[in-house]
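debug: dumping io for the single-chain case to check the tokenizer round-trip. Nothing else runs in this session.
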Amino acid sequence: MPESERTLFWQLTRWQLVWIIGIAVYVGLAFVKFGIAFRYLCVGVIVVGLAASGRANSRRFLHDWFPLLLFWIGYDAMRGLADETALRVAVQEPFEWERALFGWLMGGRVAPLYFLNLLSGSSWRVPVNAIADVFYWSHFVVVPGYMLTLWWRPPTPLRFKKFVAGLTLLHAFALATYFLYPAAPPWYVFQFGFQPPTLELLDPYQLNPPTFFQQIWAANPNWFAAIPSLHGAYPVFLFCLVKPTAHARRRVAFYCLAVWLATVVRGHHYIIDLLLGALYAVPCAWVADRYVRETRGSNQLAVEAPAEERVPR
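debug: decoded output
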């Protein structure tokens, strides 16, 4: 075997082993702490499979998406802090802030409660809630989907790297805030009032939602990650870093308003949660844009960008 091939083989094997051992340790710790769950097996099988394949695109995928995988692991690991954070959840404070800032628009009520009362008993309640649910859950698909379209054809474009850098910052600040200031969402206040949460109180089977949502609820590692709202942050982040055309910006602006409205209507967040999410997103996007431009060079950005994205100097 030529020297270059032996070197490449050793680097690839070492890289494979790092991923396989790392995921094995994570799944093992999750099993010891929480018991094995289907999600851990899925992630373990997918990542180990990609690493073991040795294919160039598999290696590129794990390398480029690694920071986002770290966020998933970090967020999932917060279930291990549930006993500690549940003792200091802010329940009444966000409610009072919302009423003080926006109650004058809603007849003295908080926005989620206003929409709940508005739709109660209305024939529009079911279709409005269904449409709101579509936009609410799209949060988990739209930004990763857009990033995947950017990443799909090698080499990895700088715009994708901006997304990864910005989201890494955003996720780091969000995780720190979730730990330092766990905050209850509106639905908790509607369901339980201002009483402090307990693990028994939050049993998904006591809440009696449909079976599918029981499973989603049980899998949620952090029920009190309302501030900042990533549903508020992601659309604004996308608006900041999407390709700078008027058409793209208009579509993202409409999507942002739709997600924000859907999130409030369904009682997942207050308006202040969304605004704080946007406040986190804008500087993270700006820093990522400057960082990637300065480290990679504006000339490379001009070469990699599509023709319609290039702006003459």
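debug: round-trip ok. Residues 1-82 form one domain.
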